[in-house]
Amino acid sequence: MIQYMNYAKSILWYDLETFGLNPRVDRIAQAALIRTDLQLNIIEEPVLLYCRLTDDYLPNPESCIVTGLTPQEVNEKGIREYDFIKKINDMFLVPGTVAAGFNNVNFDDECIRSTLYRNLFDPFEREYKEGRSRWDIMNLVRATKDLRPDGIDFSAVNPDTGFTSFKLTDITRVNHIEQEGAHDALVDVRATIDVARLIRDKQPKLFNYAFSHRFKNEVWAVLDPIRHQAILHTSAAYVSERGNTHPVLPLMANKERGNEIYCFDLTFPIPETLEGIEDLREAGIIRIMANKCPFVAPMSVMNESCEKRLGFTRSEVEEKAEKIRRSHRYLFDLREALNVKKDYEAESDADYTIYDKFMSEADKAKLKEISRLQPQDKLKEGEYNFEDEKYHKLLWRMVARNWPERLSGKEKVQWRNFCASRLINPPSKYARPLELYLRECREHMDSIETNAKDKLIYKALYDYGIDLEKRILA
Fold first, then answer.
1. Whether 388 contacts 363, CB under 8 Å
2. Spatial distance between the Cα atoms of 415 and 420, rounded to a whole number of angstroms
3. Full pLDDT tens readout for the chain, 474 residues
4. Taking the CB of residue 190, how many other CB atoms lie within 10 A of it?
5. 295-298 and 231-234: which strand pairing?
6. Which residues of 405-422 are buried (b: 16+ CB within 10 A; e: fewer)?
7. Rounded to an integer, what distance in angstroms lies between the CA atom of residue 159 and that of residue 255?
């Protein structure tokens, strides 16, 4: 039996289907969650939830074509967003829960954070308090192919790159794992668990290593920018015919952003200088985020088979790393060369400013108090003196979105005006105005390139837009 860290008590596997690809702007359509024990046995009934849309938002038609979900279906089956995210968060908040998925850290987790934030819940406490943590198996799958592939079929090819495909649908297909109905959240969660079981059964040591290194402190222990020892890093950034794993040399931590560490990709030629370099990646400098479950491992995991697959030897890597330590010390001071950019482009609207600054303890206490009130009592603005003014806006929007029927006559007019502004001139470039949305739907409905099934989805989307236009803008 595989032994895990004792503060993990269960793994909550989850997957989202969304109405777009921007976690801050777009909305969740469907969520599926399955809790397993640490041996990957299902211990609770699976949960499938749909989230109703609000009148201030339009879905991305391309995402609806991928998922097959329409606003009409989601609104018929769904619950209000506040109740939706509270049910999910209550499952995440069970002590000792590991929230896990397939590429969840880069996308699903961000959608969950934004939805929690928009509904005035703490967006982050589910990830670290009371023994809770998160995990993402996507880079474990890549590392398994590069480092310990025995017993697992990686023959699927990505037609866009010509290299190994790590799409969940392709992995399950070649390994004879059922995933009929892909892009349905519950189907995808079951498939993710089955892929995890496959790796655990065929390569238990690698699986156990990845699980135990889901914490940023464990990642830091491997990277260790003080000792400057070469390590292995697996990432989609390295995709090639040889795999997704490169040897890297940790250089320095970014003191301003404590989870970032900069490394030198040892497959690159050593630059003579960093002066005048605008794109650090072109010079072989990469950034690893310790809090995003990266797959990093010591060079000792390399064996002859790995060397043949990856195209470099451990001795070559160590020799190059020593050369940098001895003769190219300028690489270890990147402060002048760093041009740190935010993970997210700046947005000014309160709905999207989750990362501007963290919630104060005083505001957090007030919002917890508000969460216990009935909807009609939440908008007593005079009683709240938030330290961050944006929470006044967010509170009003949250009540209007979730309980529009509880608004006064004046507030209903204000809510309709707000929705009209959002539909005519959305505050983010990632959101479509209604005019463009309707035009795109019509063009796809009329195009001979659009198949019959997709035409029905575009027709449903068009009808939804027309209904919004009549109710909000007429």
1. yes
2. 9
3. 344 445 899 999 999 999 999 999 999 999 999 999 999 999 999 999 999 999 999 999 999 999 999 999 999 999 999 999 999 999 999 999 999 999 999 999 999 999 999 999 999 999 989 999 999 999 999 999 999 999 999 999 999 999 999 999 999 999 998 766 556 899 999 999 999 999 999 999 999 999 999 999 999 999 998 899 999 999 999 999 999 999 999 999 987 777 999 999 999 999 988 887 778 888 999 999 999 999 999 999 999 999 999 999 999 999 999 999 999 988 988 877 776 545 555 678 999 999 988 889 999 999 988 888 888 788 875 568 899 999 999 999 999 999 999 999 999 999 999 999 999 999 999 999 999 999 999 999 999 999 999 999 999 999 999 999 999 998
4. 22
5. antiparallel
6. ebbeeeeeeebbebbbeb
7. 41
Radius of gyration in angstroms for the set of CA atoms belonging to the chain, rounded to a whole number: 24
* Residue 338 amino acid letter: L
Measured distance CA(172)–CA(399) in Å, rounded: 42
CA distances (Å), origin 105, targets 228, 244, 393: 27, 18, 28
CB 113 within 8 A of CB 292: no
8 A C-beta contact, residue 102 and residue 130: no
Residue 172 Cα distances to 40, 156, 193, 419, angstroms: 17, 10, 11, 42
pTM: 0.93
Tokens 């991305």 found at: 60
Question: What region does 197 belong to: left with phi over 0, alpha with psi -120 to 50, or beta?
Answer: alpha
Q: Taking phi first (over 0 means left), then psi (-120 to 50 degrees means alpha), and beta for anything else, what does residue 303 get?
A: beta
